[in-house]
Amino acid sequence: MRITVNGVCTDVPEGTTAEGLVEIVGMDPSRVAVEVDGDICPRARRGETVLKEGQTVEIVGFVGGG
Amino acid sequence: MTDELVIGGHRFNSRFILGSGKFSLDVTRSVIENGGVGMATLAVRRAHSKDSSNILDSMPEGIVLLPNTSGARNAEEAVRIARLARELGCGDFVKIEIIRDSKYLMPDNCETIRAVRMLADEGFIPMPYMMPDLTAARSMADAGAAAIMPLGAPIGSNKGLLTRDFVKILVEEIDLPVIVDAGIGRPSQACEAMELGCAAVMANTAVATAGDIPAMARAFKLAIEAGRLAYLSGPGRVIEGRAEASSPLTGFLRE
Description:
The structure holds 2 protein chains of 2 kinds. Chain A is mainly β. Chain A has 1 helix and 5 strands, in the order E-E-H-E-E-E. The relative contact order of chain A is 0.30. Classes of the chains: A mainly beta, B alpha/beta.
């Protein structure tokens, strides 16, 4: 299925969870926050949050900034 | 005598807030240590793969992190960024930064007041970056700001405390810590802000664009401490239109 991850259209297997997606894109799960269709997906619920076709996911972290 | 800075119930021994942008990650820790920094800002952005090093690895134990809402153009976007920052797990502080002007990077005080209220209602500790305007500052205090962060000059300009008289009004009228944020380019300017009675100074570009970055961080620490001590001491008076001798007024070898 296709979802949008950080602005990029991405193919992932059916049934991919938010936790699985972080793994697939190669990010450190302890250092990111995940938002699905504009709502925070809390860390504790990433494993049970199954993504759906067409959803928009943002995966963000801290960077240097004033 | 302890002279702690209290923001949102948290106690700080340092009055130097560092913006963590524009540094290479390997120098960040030494800047924080040399500057005796108690609080450092961070930005939230899309993450990249885990092979890139993370800014959090450069943050020493015990430093308080102050995520900003940079990139937000209105209150709703600021709230969205603040929620993501909190989900990243570094506490409830948030520096609200709402900017729609891409040339001068002037903060939008009206949207910022709205964001302060929304974020305070969600349990955040809001520290709004603002144009130093008394009416807006009062509204931010009423909305639940924990401190206010008026600009000294445009972000990244190193031009100093151009808003001096207006910041002074805020110090006198607003019963919250007033922290000059943006534009401070030299330790002497940080010292001046502290002499006025500001509670702390935030700097980023001034340090990041210095020749010897850790040494400049230490210079800021000393200047901020000197300015604070001068403020607490009560600066001497100014006289106009005449001089006043410091030596005895009697002539040498004459009465």
